[in-house]
Write a structure and sequence with these properties.
With about 70 residues, this protein is an all-alpha fold. The chain has one domain. Helices cover about 70% and strands about 0% of the residues. The chain has three helices and no strands. The radius of gyration is 14 Å and the shape is elongated.
Length: about 70
Amino acid sequence: MSIESIMQAMAGFLVFVSVTLGVYHHEYWFFFTAFVGLNLFQSAFTGFCPPAMLLKKLGFKSDKVAA
């Protein structure tokens, strides 16, 4: 699995869990959903993603082609 695939899976899982918790536990969990969404948005423009940096240090490879 590539870093990009892992990041998409993690983001989708976190959104799913936080929405589920927001509906069935407490509405404050929707703030976590917004946090994940904002991080995805800023990462698309800046390329800064701490979990991706951690996965790279752990030895996972990226799909991106070096320029």
